[in-house]
């Protein structure tokens, strides 16, 4: 991020509305958006591109958010990437599971665009 290049956000979500919302936000803010529709593709893109932030839906297909986070935290090249989980039914139990897996924060609903933008600004220092 501090090399003059735009930060990279990896969105791992199979729901079309999330891709639409993040694409719209990316037009107004200085970040590049990568998109994967399942956890395995997200994991592969994260290892290949080493994004500045990963936003992943809790129950994304193939590898869920917890699995992707645990796998990424095992590698020195990806272990420092912040991971935000999209989790509409976020409970204290979920919070503990995600923290244990290495996730950093939660977004309850991508349709709450102001909150999404606030989280992006916070984690990308925009």
Brief summary:
The protein has 126 residues and is of the alpha/beta class. Helix content is 44%, strand content 17%.
Number of discrete domains:
1
Based on CA atoms alone, the radius of gyration comes out at 13 Å
**Beta-strand content estimate:** 15-25%
Secondary-structure-derived class: alpha/beta
Helices, by number, come to 5
Uncertain segments are: none
CATH homologous superfamily, by name?
Response regulator
Estimate the global geometry from the Cα principal axes.
globular
What is the CATH class? Alpha Beta
CATH topology assignment: Rossmann fold
Biggest beta sheet summary: 5 strands, parallel
Order of helices and strands: EHEHEHEHEH
Average pLDDT, rounded to a whole number, is 91
Helix proportion of residues, in percent? 40-55%
Give an overview of the whole structure:
With 126 residues, this protein is α/β, with parallel strands linked by helices. The chain has a single domain, classed as Response regulator (Rossmann fold), CATH 3.40.50.2300. The chain is built from 5 helices and 5 strands; from the N terminus they run βαβαβαβαβα. The chain has a 5-stranded parallel sheet with strand order 2-1-3-4-5, sandwiched between helices. Helix 2 packs parallel to helix 3.
């Amino acid at each position: 991020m501090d090399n003059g290049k735009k930060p990279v956000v990896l969105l791992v979500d199979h729901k079309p509305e999330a891709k639409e919302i993040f694409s719209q936000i990316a037009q107004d803010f200085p970040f590049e958006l990568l998109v994967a529709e399942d956890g395995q593709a997200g994991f592969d893109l994260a290892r290949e591109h080493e994004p500045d932030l990963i936003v992943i839906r809790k129950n994304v297909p193939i590898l869920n958010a917890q699995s992707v986070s645990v796998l990424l935290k095992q590698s020195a090249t990806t272990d420092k990437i912040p991971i935000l989980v999209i989790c509409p039914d976020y409970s204290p139990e979920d919070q503990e599971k995600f923290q244990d897996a290495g996730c950093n924060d939660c977004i309850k609903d991508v349709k709450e665009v102001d909150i999404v933008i606030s989280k992006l600004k916070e984690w990308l220092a925009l």
